[in-house]
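Collaborator request log, item 7. Partner lab (contact: R.S.) asked for a structural prediction of 1-deoxy-D-xylulose 5-phosphate reductoisomerase to inform their binding assays.
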Amino acid sequence: MARRRITIFGATGSIGENTVDLLTRQGGADAYDVVALSGGRNVARLAEQARALKADLAVTAYPECYDDLKAALAGSSVEAAAGTDALAEAADRPADWIMSAIVGAAGLPPGMRALKHGTTLALANKESLVTAGPLLLATAKAHGARILPVDSEHSAIFQALVGEEIDAVERIIITASGGAFRDWPLDALANATPEQASSHPNWDMGQRITVDSASMFNKALELIETKEYFGVDPARIEAVVHPESLIHALVGFRDGAIMAHVGPPDMRHAIGYALNWPDRRDLPVARLDLAQIGQLNFRPACEKRWPALRLAREVMQAGGLTGAAFNAAKEAALDAFLARRIGFTQMAEVVEDVLGRLSRDSTLTKSPLSLEKVLEVDHLAREAAAEAVSALA
Ligand code: NDP
Ligand code: MG
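Returned to partner:
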């Protein structure tokens, strides 16, 4: 097989590091041509990765970090670049497999751009599907590009569907650990701190997605992601709390059979599956000893404890640009919580308030979906969220 050309957006993050780890174990620069790696502020690590993988290009998203990146790459053959245009230029460089692992809506434009070149996009950035699902899929289709899901639940569903017809699917169930506060009394949630919300019982992930797991905004995004990626009626998509995080998703078929995907909570499985697809290769994830595990537990995902789940249903029902508004409001509310401007439970209040305001006219549901429109709604929702935060703070 020809050497594959690889690019990683968000290489310095949790998904990015795991991707670099797998590439390195599978031969690194001896086995792959690494085209570009991108990062944000952690330019020291970005430069280290780029040197080790002999990348052609390293891009920091922030122009003010350019000099530091350039200095960290001194004496190497790696080219340095910075800013949004440089990210777009990196997406234009021919590649066979691109990992989309920037956090937040900022991950959408480079991924969209890469799809226009017919590249295979391994998609960890769930915000891309939430904000612009139909546009992303249409772009991939128009350019013969493939999107491989990397979010663990969606990789699990994708694997359960191999050899199956989507028409045979009766229901899709994604599991949720319940995050840091699943056993807290409801009335204690209002006073939960960013530190408390930033520790996950099972998964080791970036801080933002960890807090989103405690609030279940992560699961809310994933419900929408499921609808968009697999094209399934929202009424057929469920979430269930599964504290052990060993079953990632289940697909129920019309004959009553349910296929469950079971594995350790280690993102290198889903990343490795996307990297080696359609083959399977040895991966450095723990093997489960089921007799030792003994039992698996499930509980209902309570919408009173996690109002984000109820909001996700409203977003799936409304469609159009509602996902873009929802995601941007969620990102702004999360920023405000991390900055201690609002409390933990107020994040959902802010998002609900923004959705209410922006749905007053029909812009969200009637406007055609374009990247420009998504970015415009993203901006409007962040402004509305800032007002909602000020009113609460
Ligand atoms: P991290 O916060 O760990 O990493 C984010 C990456 O994006 C870093 O490389 C960071 O750079 C970069 N970055 C941050 N802000 C920007 C920006 N504005 N523009 C460009 N680059 C930026 O995130 P995760 O790895 O946890 O998550 C990445 C994506 O994958 C998210 O969409 C998340 O929802 C999804 N995901 C993550 C999972 C996980 O296990 N972590 C599981 C499933 C999905 P730097 O750090 O250098 O500043
Ligand atoms: Mg997930």
